[in-house]
């Protein structure tokens, strides 16, 4: 027979996980493992097979584990010979340890998780003692238990060991955590689970409280089902334990120092959370069912998308609860919640996330199916986006809309498998065991508070009704719904259990139902106590930004002396700091700009705007995939010491060194994500109106990946929910011959979304304009999203530069009229109207053609449309007969179809409106430079030539 430590032993095959655990323990304390294993690991530490040379005891873990893998691959005896029965006691102990490891790895597969009991237990021989050659005769033998937490004794019989393992890992809670690479984290979870056998030991009062929460969950749904027949509410029935989970989470969080809980969830069970967790008055919910609406909202939204805030009492003190508004895009709320949490944490100075807790509630199908989940998880441990860990709760009703077969709903074993990418533990729990749900939830919260990392509670339950209350799920899932029809309900099962235990009277469950029904009939609070007069010192007063009349005007000018001071600060680096030679030239040029010796370029205009704001107390958060340097190497907000030798030093940010007591300036090179990062920044801006929050696309085209955020939050959040946001999007836009994905930020899409003064759409054309625009965003007394189509070639173009005096005396101009003094107004018969870079192409072409009877007007702000400013400019030309809109974009894209009616409204009778630009196209731009140049030449010819094609007459 092979020796237990022989590299050819099957121990290194199926039992390799046990070896890894032993090695983890050895690295922590060599004396904690048996002598034979310690000798083996000591030898392995100095083995050339590991790293080819002598090494100390802190040998890297990965190469050692790789050596285990290689030994397993070389092994030709992966299973023990059937005749081999003379295992020594030491070898049997090794196999007992292998059983322990197997349950920790695989026990969740045998856990009793499904209330419907539809699936047979899988064949897992690794969980049977016989797999390791252990027989019934061995079950009462005593083995070492020093590597477990089941007992304080050093030994247990194998029978007791297996019983404890099955109770811990295969009962109502199935824990997945062995994918975590940190041994200390795994041991923490093992200790918490094994020391209690993953079995609740709640007193009678807590059990009654849990029953009350489950009763409330069921009671609300049944009340609504009978009172508002046929109305959609996306019932929680079948998942009532979720309300007990939320209650336990909030109450336990309060004892752990949490002061705010921000919740994101889709529509399933949302009304239940509003009433039974946040304490929304039932009578207010009933009024919404009966047609009441908020007259202050331009559009409003359905009741199961709405958010709510409240304050509740916990044993640790008041906790503020906020349920984020969420459209029907389910998981899109994930990054929005994380951004809101980040803003609140930074407002509190909560660097580790101890006081503000994000909670994400998922559906099983959406959690596995929607990419924004992965994108948001990928933010979790990054410096600019980490929130100290999120508690994820899955309402796993085992059916995605009408799909119940996992082969069709996902490609993974569990719906939660995506979280393994960030090594988050998962606690699967049977929804028919409310106590186990509460235990798993409290454990998850403790894990988050201990390690500041994400954790998942997967409540396996069912959906009693259809996707909505008008659906008939048995049409497609007859077997599943036959079982659901036979299920008595979680509340009744738990009430009967407590009655059997003597915790409540035999009819006590019915009394709970009557009490809740009475609360519904009276329309009173079902959460006790809700604090109606509590006000946190960290709450934001939004009233100063509400009900403000729109204005384009703002006093954004800065005195010349202050501009020069700011310019000196942003061009100064420490004496021992060595910038790159390119950056040195940039800084030298900017010093000249600050002194008024040369015109400012775009980057300097930005920097002076940022510097002036932080000096005035406005924090700035600028993020994007290359925002520190700038995609087009124009910004250089983050400078890198060319002498540095480590990653974590040698960085200098001038904008963080403007003046004593300045506001923070944060610039983050984000992960390669648009949807999650833009959603995060929207959430941040909606929670903090006093910070200028900017998301910058690498190319404006890439904002396509975040279209849901733009459509469902940025453009419509105020109209639907009354939620204001000052989020600024910087989207590089311009036709430079770079092809379909590097030309257009899709101006037309944003303009189609414009109404009700919901946002600002702007395309500035010089450095002074971007300076005043950025400052205007914060100085005006209201908050609206700002979409800036920023340039590419104009970033350094001399024509787009501005004198320093325009920053000291000017303001943002929504329209810029003709600037060439040689164009006499009384000779002008045609006006070319345009926006963006094409302006410079037009004026250069006019100069080359020696034309002096065509004026050019720039539309800098497309929405809200500046009617008065346009009308004023057009009236300057008494002989004006033709107005031509000129654009880079194809005719079916860009601003043309949006601006037509606005221009006609401001034109005089008889004047003609025409279009000059590219023909309609399915693609945003051509991919061939030669074709691009041909089109550019043609559109300029059309601008100055005879009117033809699309012509409108006022």
UniProtKB/TrEMBL annotation:
Coiled-coil stretches are none
Question: Could you name the domain of life of the organism this protein comes from?
Answer: Bacteria
Keyword Oxidoreductase attributed: yes
Protein's UniProt keywords contain Glycosyltransferase: no
Q: Which cofactor does it need?
A: thiamine diphosphate
GO CC term, one of those recorded: cytosol
Task: Extract one GO molecular function annotation from the record.
Answer: oxoglutarate dehydrogenase (succinyl-transferring) activity
Q: Which SUPFAM superfamilies match?
A: Thiamin diphosphate-binding fold (THDP-binding) (SSF52518)
EC number(s) per entry: 1.2.4.2
Keyword field? Glycolysis, Oxidoreductase, Thiamine pyrophosphate
The record's subunit annotation is:
Homodimer. Part of the 2-oxoglutarate dehydrogenase (OGDH) complex composed of E1 (2-oxoglutarate dehydrogenase), E2 (dihydrolipoamide succinyltransferase) and E3 (dihydrolipoamide dehydrogenase); the complex contains multiple copies of the three enzymatic components (E1, E2 and E3).
Q: Which family does it belong to?
A: Belongs to the alpha-ketoglutarate dehydrogenase family.
Q: Which NCBIfam families did the record assign?
A: 2oxo_dh_E1, PRK09404.1, PRK12270.1
Q: State the function annotated in the UniProt record.
A: E1 component of the 2-oxoglutarate dehydrogenase (OGDH) complex which catalyzes the decarboxylation of 2-oxoglutarate, the first step in the conversion of 2-oxoglutarate to succinyl-CoA and CO(2).
What's the protein called, per UniProt?
Answer: 2-oxoglutarate dehydrogenase E1 component
Q: Which organism is it from?
A: Pigmentiphaga aceris
Organismal lineage:
Bacteria, Pseudomonadati, Pseudomonadota, Betaproteobacteria, Burkholderiales
């Amino acid at each position: 027979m092979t020796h237990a430590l022989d590299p050819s032993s099957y121990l290194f095959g199926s039992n390799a996980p046990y070896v890894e655990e032993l090695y983890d323990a050895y690295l922590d304390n060599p004396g904690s493992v048996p002598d034979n294993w310690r000798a083996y690991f000591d030898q392995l530490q100095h083995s050339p097979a590991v790293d080819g040379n002598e090494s100390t005891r802190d040998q890297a873990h990965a190469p050692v584990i790789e050596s285990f893998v290689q030994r397993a691959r070389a092994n030709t005896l992966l299973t023990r010979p059937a005749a081999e029965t003379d295992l020594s006691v030491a070898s049997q102990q090794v196999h007992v340890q292998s059983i322990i490891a197997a349950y920790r790895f695989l026990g969740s597969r045998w856990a009793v998780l499904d209330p419907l009991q539809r699936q047979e237990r899988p064949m897992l021989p690794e969980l049977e003692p016989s797999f390791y050659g252990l027989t019934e005769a061995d079950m009462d033998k005593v083995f070492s238990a020093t590597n477990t937490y089941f007992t304080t004794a050093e030994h247990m019989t194998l029978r007791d060991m297996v019983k404890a393992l099955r109770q811990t890992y295969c009962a109502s809670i199935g824990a997945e955590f062995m994918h975590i690479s940190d041994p200390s984290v795994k041991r923490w979870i093992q200790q918490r689970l094994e020391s209690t056998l993953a079995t609740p030991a709640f007193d009678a009062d807590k059990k009654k409280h849990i029953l009350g929460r489950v009763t409330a969950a069921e009671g609300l749904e049944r009340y609504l089902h009978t009172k508002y027949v046929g109305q959609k509410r996306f019932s929680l029935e079948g998942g009532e334990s979720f309300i007990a989970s939320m209650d336990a989470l909030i109450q336990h969080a309060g004892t752990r120092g949490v002061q705010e809980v921000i919740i994101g969830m889709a529509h399933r069970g949302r009304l239940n959370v509003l009433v039974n967790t946040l304490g929304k008055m039932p009578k207010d919910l009933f009024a919404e069912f009966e047609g009441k609406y908020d007259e202050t909202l331009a559009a409003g939204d359905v009741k199961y998308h709405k958010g709510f805030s409240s304050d509740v009492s916990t044993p640790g003190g008041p906790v503020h609860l906020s349920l984020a508004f969420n459209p029907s895009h389910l998981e899109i709320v994930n990054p929005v919640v994380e951004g809101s949490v980040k803003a609140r944490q930074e407002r509190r100075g909560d660097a580790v996330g101890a006081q503000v807790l994000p909670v994400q509630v998922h559906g099983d199908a959406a959690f596995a199916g929607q990419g924004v989940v992965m994108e948001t998880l990928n933010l979790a441990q990054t410096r600019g986006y980490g929130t100290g860990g999120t508690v994820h709760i899955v309402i796993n009703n085992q059916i995605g809309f009408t799909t119940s077969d996992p082969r069709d709903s996902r490609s993974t074993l569990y719906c939660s498998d995506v979280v393994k990418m960030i090594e988050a533990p998962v606690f699967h729990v049977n929804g028919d065991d409310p106590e186990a749900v509460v235990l798993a939830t409290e454990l998850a919260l403790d894990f988050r508070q201990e390690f500041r990392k994400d954790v998942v509670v997967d409540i396996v339950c069912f959906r009693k009704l259809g996707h909505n209350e008008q659906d008939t799920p048995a049409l497609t899932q007859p077997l599943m719904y036959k079982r659901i029809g036979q299920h008595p309900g979680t509340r009744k099962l738990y009430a009967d259990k407590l009655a059997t235990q003597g915790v409540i009277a035999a009819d006590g469950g019915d009394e709970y139902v009557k009490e809740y029904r009475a609360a519904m009939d009276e329309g009173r609070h079902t959460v006790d106590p809700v604090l109606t007069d509590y006000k946190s010192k960290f709450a934001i007063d939004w009233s100063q930004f509400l009900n403000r009349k729109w204005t384009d005007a703002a006093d954004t000018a800065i005195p010349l002396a202050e501009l020069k001071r700011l310019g000196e600060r942003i061009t100064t680096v420490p004496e021992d700091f060595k910038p790159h030679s390119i950056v040195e030239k940039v800084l030298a040029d900017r010093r000249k700009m600050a002194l008024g010796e040369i015109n400012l370029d775009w980057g300097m205009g930005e920097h002076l705007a940022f510097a002036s704001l932080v000096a005035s107390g406005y924090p700035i958060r600028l993020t994007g995939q290359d925002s520190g340097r700038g995609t087009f190497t124009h910004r250089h907000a983050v400078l890198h010491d060319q002498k540095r030798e480590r990653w974590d030093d040698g960085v200098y940010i001038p904008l963080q060194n403007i003046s004593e007591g300045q506001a923070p300036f944060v610039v983050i090179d984000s992960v390669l994500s648009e949807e999650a990062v833009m959603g995060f920044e929207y959430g941040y801006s909606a929670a903090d109106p006093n910070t200028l929050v900017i998301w910058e696309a690498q190319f404006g085209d890439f904002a396509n990946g975040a279209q849901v955020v733009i459509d469902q939050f940025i453009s419509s959040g105020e109209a639907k929910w009354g939620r204001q946001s000052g989020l600024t999007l910087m989207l590089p836009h311009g036709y430079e011959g770079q092809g379909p994905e590097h030309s257009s930020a899709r101006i037309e899409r944003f303009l189609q979304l414009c109404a009700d003064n919901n946002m600002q759409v702007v395309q500035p054309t010089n450095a002074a304009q971007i300076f005043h625009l950025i400052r205007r965003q914060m100085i005006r007394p209201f908050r609206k999203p700002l979409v800036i189509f920023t340039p590419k070639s104009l970033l350094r173009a001399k024509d787009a530069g501005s004198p320093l005096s325009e920053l000291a005396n000017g303001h943002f101009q929504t329209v810029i009229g003709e600037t060439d003094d040689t164009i006499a107004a009384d000779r002008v018969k045609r006006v070319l109207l345009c926006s963006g870079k094409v302006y410079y192409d037009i004026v250069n072409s006019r100069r080359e053609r020696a034309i002096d009877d065509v004026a050019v007007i720039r539309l800098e702000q497309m929405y809200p449309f500046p009617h008065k400013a346009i009308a004023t400019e057009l009236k300057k030309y008494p002989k004006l007969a033709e107005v031509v809109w000129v654009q880079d974009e194809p005719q079916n894209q860009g601003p043309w179809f949006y601006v037509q009616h606005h221009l006609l409204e401001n034109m005089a009778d008889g004047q003609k409106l025409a279009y000059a630009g590219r023909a309609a196209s399915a693609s945003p731009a051509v991919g061939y430079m030669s074709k691009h140049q041909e089109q550019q030449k043609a559109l300029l010819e059309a601008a100055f030539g005879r009117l033809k094609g699309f012509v409108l007459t006022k």
